[in-house]
Structure formats: structure tokens, C-alpha cells
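User: These chains co-purify. Model them together.
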Amino acid sequence: MEVLKEVACGRTVTVQKIVGQGAVKRRIMDMGITKGTEIYVRKVAPLGDPMEVTVRGYELSLRKADAEMILVE
Amino acid sequence: MPTKIALAGNPNSGKTTLFNALTGSNQYVGNWPGVTIEKKEGKLRSDTYKDITIVDLPGIYSLSPYTLEEVIARDYLITENPDAIINIVDGTNLERNLYLTTQLAELGIPMVVAVNMMDIVEKNGDRINLDKLSEKLGCPVIGISALRKAGITEAAEKAAELANKKVPMTPKHRFSDELEHAIESIEGLLGDRVEDKNKRWTAIKVFERDIKIMERLDLDDSLKERIENIIDGCETDMDDDSESIITNERYLYISSIIKDCYRRKSNKKMTTSDKIDRIVTNRWLALPIFALAMFAVYYLAVTTVGTWMTDWTNDVLFGEIIPPAMESFLDSIGTAPWLQSLILDGIIAGVGAVLGFIPQMLVLFLALALLEDCGYMARVAFIMDRIFRKFGLSGKSFIPMLIGTGCGVPGIMASRTIENERDRRMTIMVTTFIPCGAKLPVIALISGALFNGAWWVAPSAYFVGIAAIIFSGIILKKTRMFSGDPAPFVMELPPYHRPVAGNVLRSMWERGWSFIKKAGTIILLSTIVVWFASSFGIVDGRIVMVDDVNDGFLSKIGGAIAPVFAPLGWGQWQATVATITGLVAKENVVSTLGILYGFAEVAEDGFEIWGLLASSFTVLSAYSFLVFNLLCAPCFAAIGAIRREMNNTKWTLFAIGYQTLFAYAVSLSIYQLGMLFTGNGFGIGTAAAILIVALFLYLLMRPYRERPIEAASVQASM
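Assistant: Joint model of the two components:
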């Protein structure tokens, strides 16, 4: 298992677990990142953060600090 | 009573386009109580159904208790009991859009699902089986294209029909047996505390331990404990927290229905939007393109068109055309001099001050609306987030500050594009720290009179402004007022598309009009007050109109306040009066000093009084005077804009109070520490300055604690 934050651009991974709790976790899951979802890591912003991923057919940006909560395979 | 239909859907689902198409020009734009979020209502245009009001809810992804928009939307749905819901769903992004649908369906309110962008779905070669979707969801589903106005009347009339028949919505979806069992048990325990129609929704919220709902229900302890036991059991069995269990189950359910009703053409061809994005947010090209886009906005609004039009309004329309015409008219009917002065120098000048900003603002709002509508604004936040979030600001805060170098008023108004309320308030508070065009003459005056026009004075003013933004951001971020509502930056990057002329023009007009309406009053009133104080005074025990500002009330007021500024090095009443008139417009500082030092009129940089100024100021006190005028409360027009955007008197007062106090503290430190280092001994002032610096350092360094995550509060808490 690795952290979404570490996944290189261009790779597709599957969500295993989302750690943490509260507003940020809820928001991440509300946006469709749930257990078993495929995530395609599209790119990282020019200044190195945040990152852009494709999930459930649309583009989502999230900060690396928040992407730390998402464990993938 | 008119029928109320709520329009709910995700951001970027075409909700605004649909709302505009359904209601036409028949709209009322206001604010949700106590917050800066817009509330729009409009009458449905329909031949069959009369007297139907459409209420546009904020764009939301979920009905969680964590963001202001979500809390507003669900409070409205539960407490105002709309007669029906139109749930607009983006057909090109069906899966995530249906997530909100599953939550809305549980409220028991009659509902129609309008699947938008069907034209694009078809063009892409995808297929959505609407009949099957309707069967699975348990409510009518209608395919529409809000942009082409296809199917929209049908959707609205269907909703009106359901509203009249009062057919409550009963969701068809079932979660896993284990979860259903837990929800049923909670429903049983709630008994008749909750109305039948939204019992399921309430039970699910109780299962999620939703703070807002628990507060509202106010259950007794033994009941709470029994419910907690049910939730605990379920959490242990399913190995997750209750909120996540529900979210997971919803998406599992959506995946299961989507399999049967949605066929995606499976070629992995890149869409036009993907191609644009590859260039626009490319690692190397993103920043140059961003700079170019910002330059274009600035060039249009500040350097050329916007400023030309605003200058024309100020200098020609309200300078050469209206005042002389009015003056000769007033002369011809023999108006008393005081009334003439009130009309010319008070009212017309005040109205001019309000209207003068409008052309520039419209140009700016047009540019911003274009950027928002085509999808680039979301990328601005994406590109700049890294820099701005450190200071508690949003990536989109860049635009207000950039525009603020030209004029703070449109700069503040540009903060409207920032979604998060906390980021927006912070941006509004710090935008006017950046020296605007009207502050340049003040800088020129001080630099010319005291520093022999040294090259570094003007750049240092910008440096002070930027430093003030950074310090304030870091300090305020840690205060209680700003530490609530944590803002997860989990943001959708919508596909690029061609802007819709109607939406862009409407947005431009609405923002411009709201400035006239909400900011206009403050600007007009304060201009008149300052006019009165400077043109009237007491001579021989009577209140009379005075020719010389020196005799007016203003100079007396200035004299009374002046000692307050003595620790800053400029206790002269002239400097104080100039600071007060600077509130009307910052460039007035120069002309007022000119008049007070005995000149009728001075050049823009006031070089006539350089000598006099040099003799009454020292280098240090002049710089302190400059810094104070740069950072303190902005002009009345900007204060009006702050009031408009904060939509709250307390926050407005807090903003200008903070700015003025901050300015005072910084100027005092500069002057007193400067005095110390130039060998002027140690006094009470020096001690105060050292204390202030120590306090600053403490506020900067103290650890940043995100407050324990609480539910978003609808009250504008202070």
C-alpha cells in the first residue's frame, strides 16, 4: 500500500482506505473518492502542489497534505 | 400562497444557466441572512402554471454539515418546506452528480431530476437511459439542455405538477441489510419526534452523528445512549466510521444503478477540454500563461478601457459637464450659496464618486465573468494555491490584489469569485494594503518633499503593502474568528467551455448594480459629512459657511485628534486633517495639505509645499505619516465596497478597525525605533514600540491550531 501523495503522474491506482476523520475526510469521500475507486494521477501544479486527479470521470484537485489521507494500491 | 420550487445541484452543473432560462429577467438577487452567499429567487415563466417561485440554492456536492453552502441549502429544504425540488444533474458527470440526488431523495419532498447537457452526452456518443434511471430513482427524470433551452419547461412544469399533487418522494434505494437494519432501529427510536416524510433522512443524519441535526432534535441522554449503541455496533461490524459507511454505501448504490442506465463510449480519445488543459496548466507554460491572462485583465480594466471610461466619468462628466451646467442653473434660479455648495460639492461630488467607479468595474467584472465561465478561474486557484494558502488566503486572492494596485474598490469587489467565506473575508480585509493609484500622489509628495525623490520610497510603499498582507494573513489566520470552518481544498476542475454571453453579461450587471445599491449610500453620506465639516464652522458664535478650511469644523476636529498621532511623529493638526480628508479619496491628502499650508491649489505631487513640509516634518515622521496613510482605513468608496462584500456591519467595522490599528502600530514602531537608532534616547514611546514588535513576533510565531473541526455555522459568528 502507498499514499496517494507519492503516486507518480500518469499512474492509475485503486483506493484501499481513507484514514483520518471529520470535514476533510467527508469532503474527499463526498467528491467520490471511496474504497475501491480508481484514481488516475494526472498532474501536479506548476509550483509542486496541489495535484490533479481523474476520479469517476471528472477532474479533481487536492492538496498533497490531504492526499496523504488516501491509501492506494 | 405561491408555490416554491427549490433548484438544487452541484456547482458547474449548469444550474445558473437553467435558473436564468426558467425565470428570465424576473429575478430577485439578495443574500442568505448573515452570510456573503447570494440568494436568488425568480418567477417561473410558464403559460400553464402561474405564481411559481424558483429558489436557486447554493451549488453543493453533498448535504454534509461542514460547508456554509451545504448548511444553508439543507436548512432551507428542511425548515422552509419548498413544495418541490428540481435536482439538476450534469449528464457528462453522472456518477458524482447522482450522489447529491440520493441525499435529496431522502427528504421526502416531491422531486424531479433534470439531466442537463444531454446534447453534449449525445455528441460524445454516450447513452443515458432516462426511463430506467427514473425507475431506479423513483422520481421523474427529464433530459434537458439548459444552454439550448431544450426540455427545461417540461422539467419545471413536471415539478409544478408534483408540487400541486403533493406526491412525496419515496427513495427506492436500499443500503446493505446491516445498515438498513440500523437505520430502521433509529427510525423506531425517533418515533413521532420527526415528521414521517423526512424520517429516513433524519435517521440517516443521526446515524452519521450530524451535529446540527442532533442539536435540533435535543434527545434525552438515555435515548442518545441507545442510538449510540446501534451506531457503535454497526461501525465495529463494518470496520469504518458511520459517516464513511453511509458515503461508501451511496456510491456503491450509484455504481450499481449506473451499470444499467449509462453507456460510455469507450474510446479514450482526448476531449478538447483535455487538450486545452494540457497546455494551460502545463508545468512550464502554466505560469507564463497565467501572467499573460492577468496582464490582459489588468490592461483592460486598469491601464486602458476601464480607466479611460472612469476618468471620463470623473473628469469630464462629473467635472466639466454636470457641475458647470448645474452651477449656472442654480445661479439662474438664485439658490443660496450654502445650498449651491451642498449640491455641487456635497451631493454631485458624492454621486460622482459612486458612479465614477462603475465603468471600470463593469469592464473588470466582464473579464472576471469570462474567466469564471470558461473554467479558467478554477485553474487560477489551482496554480496559485501553493503561495497564498500560507497566509490564510485562496489562490484566487491574487486577482483582487492585482486589481487593488489600480484601485481598491474593484479589487475588493473582485473577491466575489472566492468560494470559501473565510478566505473571502480575509482577502477583503487585506486587499487595500496594496498602494492603489490614488495613493501614488501621496507617495510622490513625501518622497519629493523629504527624500529628494529617492528611488526607493515608492518601491518601499509596495513592499510595506505586501508585508502587511503577509503579516496580517498569518496573524489573522490564527485568531478565533478565522480559525473555524476549516477549508479543505478539494476542488473540482470543471471542463473548459465557451462562455455563455447571457450568463457573463448578467453576472457583470448584477455585481455592478449591487455596488451602486449597497456601497453607494455609505459613499454618498460620508462625502456629504466631510463636505459639511470642511465648509462650515463657528464664527462669532454662529454656525456659518466658511471660505477657508482653517476656520471649518474639520480643522477643529483635526486639532482635537492630533495628539493621538503625536507618538507617530506627526501631531500637527494639518497632517491629521489631511488624513481625514484622505478618507474621501486618498489623493485629497495632497490637496488638503496644500490648502492648509496656504496654497489655493497645488500640483498632483504638491511640489509647491515641499519646502514647508520639509520644515514641519522630519524624515522619520514623514515616512511614518506615509505608512499610516497607506495602511489605515481606505477611502469611503472602498469602505462601502467592504460593507457590500462583507454583508455584515460588525465584520466591516472589524476590517477597518483592524486596518487602522495595524497602521497605527506599524507607524509608531517605525517612528519610535527610528528615533532610538538615530540616537534620540529611550522614552515611553520606545518602550511601546518594542512591546508592539514583541507582540507582533509572538502573534507571528505562535503555533497554528486548526480548531477542532466543527459543523459550519450559519450565523456570522464573531
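Confidence is low (pLDDT under 50) at residues 713-718 of chain B.
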